[in-house]
Structure formats: structure tokens, C-alpha cells
């Protein structure tokens, strides 16, 4: 049992989160309590606190039947690699994260309205925090990577307007476009193969096609170097876990 007197939330209070948790555990849809929990457990859409991790197991227990609990637990996990100073509390959440992973996978199989948010939360349970933070629905997605050969910043576009690499010009937009080279499902490996397989399993064609391009190759518009998009993005953005 947590000693809440020593557990601060994002507003440096120790008494509100346990009260709010008891309210939402009461079985009624308490919108006001969920709203307050949201800003006490996540600050400015980015930071988490000690209370966030102490509350996480209780949120996971509610998540199978409560969309608000599922959303908030996912948002906490997506921020777990940040500079919050509570790594020991995050480690203590390993069992809750494992339980949450199974719950999220079951939820995805139902093709829910919150599919993308659930997919991103699932990525966080796999400690793929950089993808959990940026993965979109591939209708209007951009990723910035540096060419590994000439170091120019390359814009990777994957959306309804095209799937290409380009150099972004302030006045001209995306110039010197080069078509992306999607990865073959048989050639994908690691987390890319796993992500693609889930999207295919669940009949999410746009998502699976976007992932194939994200984990495929791009040509640098400046020097013509061909590189793997996901590898370069991961190298630059994956957090160092302590």
C-alpha cells in the first residue's frame, strides 16, 4: 500500500489523487473526477509525477471496462521515459504494465473507435516510447530525420498527399521529392514487423501501409544516399532508459 502522504502529484499535493481514485472506483462515471485526475497525473501534456506511477496499477484494474482509465493509464506509460526522477516507481509498475499490455491487445482486436490511441499505449508497454509519442494514422504524417551521409535534414511524408522524402523549404514547401521505398512485409523485422503484423491482423490497411513505408527506405534528396527511415528516426529519438 502506498503512503500517499509522501506521494506528490503534478501540483505538489498529496491528498487529492487518492480521494479521486476512490471516487472513480465507485462505479459511477464521474467526469469531474476523471478530469481532475488527468491534470494531477499529467502536467502540460508531457510531465508525470510520483503519484502517476503509484496510481497506475489502480487505473489498469479499471481499464478493461472504463475508457477514461484506459486512456489515462496509456498516457502515463507513454511519458514513462521522461526526466521525471521516479524510475524506481516505474520499475515497480512492471506487473501492471504487463497486465495492461494484454488488455490493450484484446481491446485492439475489437477494432475500437480509439484504435490509434490504444495502439500507441501498447507501444509504450513495449517501451517503444519514441513511436508511442509520434505515430499517427498516416493521413497527414511527417517525420524529420538527418541523412546519415550528408547530415541534411530530410522530411519524410507519409499520407494521402504522398509518400516521399524531401527537403523542406520555408517558401517553396517540400522540394526535390523522392518516392519512399516501403519495406516488404516478409523483410520487416523487430518492432516494425510486430507493429505491421498487428495492423494487418486487425484489418487496418492504411496503418499497415504507413508502417511499411515508415520502416522502409528513403533517398536523400541532396546526396542520393539511401537509408532506412525507422532506423534513423530511432537513433535520434529513442530515449536512453535508465
Molecular structure report:
With 242 residues, this protein is of the alpha+beta class. The chain contains eleven helices and eight strands. Strand 3 and strand 4 form a beta hairpin. It is elongated. The two termini are 25 Å apart. The mean pLDDT is 94.
Short note summarizing the structure:
The protein is an alpha+beta fold and 242 residues long. It contains 11 helices and 8 strands. The protein has helices at residues 16-24, 31-41, 50-63, 67-78, 87-91, 94-109, 115-125, 129-134, 190-201, 205-214, 229-237, and strands at 42-43, 47-48, 140-146, 153-159, 162-169, 173-179, 217-219, 226-228.
Number of strands: 8
Q: Strand sequence of the main sheet, in spatial order?
A: 3-4-5-6
Helix content: 40-55%
Characterize the main sheet: 4 strands, antiparallel
Distance between the termini: 25 Å
Structural class: alpha+beta
Beta-strand proportion: 15-25%
User: How many helical elements?
Assistant: 11
Order of helices and strands: HHEEHHHHHHEEEEHHEEH
Radius of gyration: 20 Å
| Low-pLDDT runs | none
Amino acid at each position: 500500500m502506498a503512503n500517499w502522504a509522501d506521494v506528490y502529484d503534478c501540483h505538489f499535493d498529496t491528498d487529492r489523487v487518492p480521494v479521486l481514485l476512490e471516487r472513480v472506483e465507485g462505479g459511477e462515471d464521474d467526469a469531474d473526477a476523471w478530469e481532475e485526475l488527468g491534470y494531477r497525473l499529467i502536467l502540460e501534456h508531457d510531465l508525470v509525477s510520483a503519484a502517476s506511477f503509484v496510481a497506475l496499477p489502480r487505473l489498469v484494474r479499471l481499464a478493461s471496462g472504463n475508457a477514461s482509465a484506459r486512456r489515462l493509464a496509456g498516457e502515463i506509460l507513454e511519458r514513462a521515459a521522461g526526466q521525471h526522477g521516479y524510475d524506481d516507481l516505474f520499475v515497480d509498475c512492471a506487473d501492471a504494465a504487463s497486465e495492461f499490455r494484454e488488455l490493450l491487445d484484446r481491446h485492439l482486436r475489437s477494432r475500437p473507435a480509439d484504435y490509434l490511441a490504444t495502439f500507441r499505449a501498447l507501444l509504450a508497454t513495449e517501451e517503444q516510447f519514441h513511436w508511442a509519442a509520434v505515430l499517427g494514422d498516416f493521413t497527414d504524417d511527417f517525420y524529420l530525420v538527418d541523412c546519415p551521409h550528408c547530415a541534411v535534414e530530410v522530411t519524410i511524408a507519409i499520407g494521402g498527399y504522398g509518400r516521399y522524402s524531401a527537403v523542406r523549404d520555408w517558401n517553396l514547401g517540400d522540394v526535390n521529392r523522392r518516392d519512399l521505398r516501403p519495406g516488404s512485409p516478409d523483410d520487416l523485422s523487430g518492432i516494425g514487423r510486430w507493429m505491421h503484423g498487428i495492423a494487418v491482423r486487425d484489418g487496418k490497411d492504411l496503418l499497415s501501409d504507413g508502417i511499411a513505408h515508415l520502416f522502409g527506405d528513403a533517398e536523400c534528396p541532396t546526396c542520393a544516399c539511401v537509408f532506412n527511415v525507422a532506423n534513423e528516426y530511432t537513433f535520434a529519438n529513442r530515449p536512453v532508459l535508465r
